[in-house]
TrEMBL record:
<feature type="transmembrane region" description="Helical">
    <location>
        <begin position="47"/>
        <end position="70"/>
    </location>
</feature>
<dbReference type="InterPro" id="IPR035906">
    <property type="entry name" value="MetI-like_sf"/>
</dbReference>
<feature type="domain" description="ABC transmembrane type-1">
    <location>
        <begin position="13"/>
        <end position="202"/>
    </location>
</feature>
<keyword id="KW-0472">Membrane</keyword>
<keyword id="KW-0812">Transmembrane</keyword>
<keyword id="KW-1003">Cell membrane</keyword>
<protein>
    <submittedName>
        <fullName>Ectoine/hydroxyectoine ABC transporter permease subunit EhuC</fullName>
    </submittedName>
</protein>
<feature type="transmembrane region" description="Helical">
    <location>
        <begin position="183"/>
        <end position="201"/>
    </location>
</feature>
<dbReference type="GO" id="GO:0022857">
    <property type="term" value="F:transmembrane transporter activity"/>
</dbReference>
<feature type="transmembrane region" description="Helical">
    <location>
        <begin position="12"/>
        <end position="35"/>
    </location>
</feature>
<dbReference type="GO" id="GO:0043190">
    <property type="term" value="C:ATP-binding cassette (ABC) transporter complex"/>
</dbReference>
<keyword id="KW-0029">Amino-acid transport</keyword>
<dbReference type="InterPro" id="IPR000515">
    <property type="entry name" value="MetI-like"/>
</dbReference>
<keyword id="KW-0813">Transport</keyword>
<dbReference type="InterPro" id="IPR043429">
    <property type="entry name" value="ArtM/GltK/GlnP/TcyL/YhdX-like"/>
</dbReference>
<dbReference type="InterPro" id="IPR014342">
    <property type="entry name" value="Ectoine_EhuC"/>
</dbReference>
<dbReference type="Pfam" id="PF00528">
    <property type="entry name" value="BPD_transp_1"/>
</dbReference>
Length: 239
């Protein structure tokens, strides 16, 4: 390819990364807000959060992009630029999936931990912030990593709006060169590299968070070996 076509592809990569970051931030905010609402003590809050989750989890992300970009201006007179339309559609859609991750992790925290907070006269907000979330967040990271990779692949859907992301730029290059195999092989490799980097970063974050609460992989493994040795009398000791 010529330098001009490579520049077009690189601009597409930059647009994809911008969309990924903005929609991931929105999805994370929605995930925690809705996921925590799903565990709220008031049934109306749980009901509203549940309706949102079911609606956005049960609709197509592609159709949601069409709806935000084409229907929203007609219905409400709000015309969003493609970047913000894609961010809104993807963030709300993947945030619904993320809310279930948050809800599951919060419910997985030992109830005795919450009871300890009650015994210490913590408010519900303090129990959530100081006791529950520090234990639940590290358990969310692997699932959030998978969701982030899915979101990365979902960014390709915005090409239907004519947005100059990686997929759209690659298609323009393909039309110019008439070399589908070469161009789309490059695109696959670029997506793979981005996904690989994201996976490494998320694993590093998971390890750091678990180490912060004494639950890094080495500590967990040592604890399991010690427990097995104490209960069965078999197994190596912990140095």
């Amino acid at each position: 390819m010529t330098s001009g076509l490579w520049e077009l592809v690189l601009k597409g990569v930059w647009t994809t990364l911008q969309l990924l970051v903005s929609s991931a931030l929105l999805a994370a905010a929605v995930s925690f807000a809705v996921g925590m609402a799903r565990t709220h003590r008031l049934w109306i809050v749980r009901f509203v959060a549940g309706v949102y989750t079911e609606v956005f989890r049960g609709t197509s992300a592609l159709v949601m992009i069409f709806w935000v970009f084409f229907v929203l201006p007609i219905a409400f007179g709000w015309q969003l630029v493609p970047m913000w339309a894609g961010t809104l559609a993807l963030g709300l859609t993947y945030g619904a999936y993320g809310s279930e991750i948050v809800r599951g992790a919060l419910n997985a925290v030992d109830p005795a931990q919450r009871e300890g907070g009650i015994a210490l006269s913590f408010t519900p907000a303090q129990r959530m912030r100081l006791i529950v979330l520090p234990q639940a967040v590290p358990e969310m990271i692997p699932s959030f990593c998978n969701l982030l990779i899915e979101l990365l692949k979902g960014t390709a859907l915005v090409s239907v709006m004519g947005m100059g992301d990686l997929t759209f730029s690659a298609n323009l290059v393909r039309l110019a060169l008439q070399q589908s195999a070469e161009i789309y092989t490059y695109v696959l490799l670029i997506y793979f590299v981005i996904a690989f980097v994201l996976t490494r970063l998320m694993r590093g974050l998971e390890k750091r968070l678990k180490a912060g609460i004494g639950k890094d992989s080495g500590t967990e493994r040592a604890a399991r070996e010690l427990k097995r040795a104490q209960t069965t009398g078999v197994g190596g000791g912990v140095a």
